[in-house]
Structure to design on (334 residues):
């Protein structure tokens, strides 16, 4: 059942109106301005309100067809996108790599041709190879949204993280945020580095030397370089820190073992109760899925200053916002 009520300002914007985003696709947050990121977050706040209503859907994307193209396993992100699409009343189709022609060897280009033939307006793609979403933009007319490509970017995750932080502190500018763990293999870290530095946070990245990117400065834009500090010492990363964002150890992306043992990793880089007690205002986040007892001690996962479930809720609102704003770029509205 769909409500005819839209969040106030959202209702005022006809879908045909130019929402002013500088990008037709969301491939990554590299190059996204503070204004564009702010617009996504502000719109997400309005959708966040819709999610708290008894009737949680709006008709904004009625008639828009969205395909979820997932070439990699995903629970949270896939469900979150699907829920966001349904809350906006879009028509939704799912392709996942198991049980479809993808597993029968169809190339991404051929899958794209089929998408085109089916007159799909928006494609949400998760793929193990960095650059797959960008490749897709060259094969289809649909608007493409990256739901995670290899170790490159995972923009909607960073947007939902930014929304969660802004909700907690009322701002992002001037906050000290530490990203801890497997930075090298993490698309979440990359997207967050772009978003958080653009929004004016000071970011520390921390992890074993073998999991830190070798050419960090190549990864960052001009303005971000002075805002990012690197350390291999957890205590240093937590000292004066407002938010600690722990990342999952990406076993599946590591060609070889890059640290001695999971137990040792937890001892050196895991956030434990002693850290929560020593840093009484510290907020902890994690994109999930959490390896309990590895990146975070199990009682830290359930701690009142852990915002992991707020991140999940905000994920739906942020994806509604992205879909809503980017639907402007579909042929349907051209
Ligand atoms: C992240 C991902 O898939 O990149 N998870 C997610 O989107 N919920 C992080 C991870 O897999 O560790």
């Amino acid at each position: 059942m769909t409500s005819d009520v839209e969040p106030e300002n959202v209702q005022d914007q006809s879908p045909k109106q130019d929402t002013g985003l500088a990008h037709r696709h969301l491939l990554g947050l590299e190059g996204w301005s503070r204004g564009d990121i702010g617009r996504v977050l502000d719109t997400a706040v309005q959708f966040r309100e819709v999610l708290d209503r008894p009737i949680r859907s709006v008709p904004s994307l009625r008639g828009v067809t969205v395909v979820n193209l997932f070439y990699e396993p995903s629970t949270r992100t896939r469900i979150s996108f699907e829920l966001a699409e349904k809350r906006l009343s879009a028509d939704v189709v799912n392709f996942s790599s198991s049980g479809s022609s993808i597993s029968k060897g169809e190339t991404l280009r051929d899958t794209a041709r089929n998408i085109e033939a089916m007159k799909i307006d928006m494609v949400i793609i998760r793929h193990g190879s960095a650059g797959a979403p960008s490749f897709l933009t060259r094969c289809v007319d649909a608007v493409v949204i990256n739901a995670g490509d290899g170790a490159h970017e995972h923009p909607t995750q960073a947007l939902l993280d930014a929304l969660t932080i802004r909700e907690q502190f009322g701002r992002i500018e001037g906050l000290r945020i530490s990203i801890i763990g497997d930075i090298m293999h993490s698309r979440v870290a990359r997207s967050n580095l772009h978003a958080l530095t653009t929004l004016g946070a000071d970011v520390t990245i921390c992890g074993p030397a073998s999991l830190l990117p070798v050419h960090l400065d190549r990864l960052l834009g001009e303005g971000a370089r002075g805002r990012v500090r690197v350390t291999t010492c957890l205590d240093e990363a937590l000292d004066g820190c407002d938010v600690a964002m722990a990342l999952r150890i990406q076993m599946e992306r590591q060609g070889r073992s890059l640290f001695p043992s999971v137990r040792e990793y937890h001892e050196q880089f895991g956030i434990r109760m002693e850290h929560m007690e020593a840093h009484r205002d510290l907020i902890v986040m994690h994109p999930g899925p959490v390896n309990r007892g590895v990146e975070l001690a199990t009682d830290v996962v359930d701690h009142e200053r852990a915002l992991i479930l707020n991140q999940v809720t905000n994920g739906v609102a942020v994806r509604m916002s992205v879909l809503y704003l980017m639907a402007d770029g579909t042929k349907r509205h051209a």
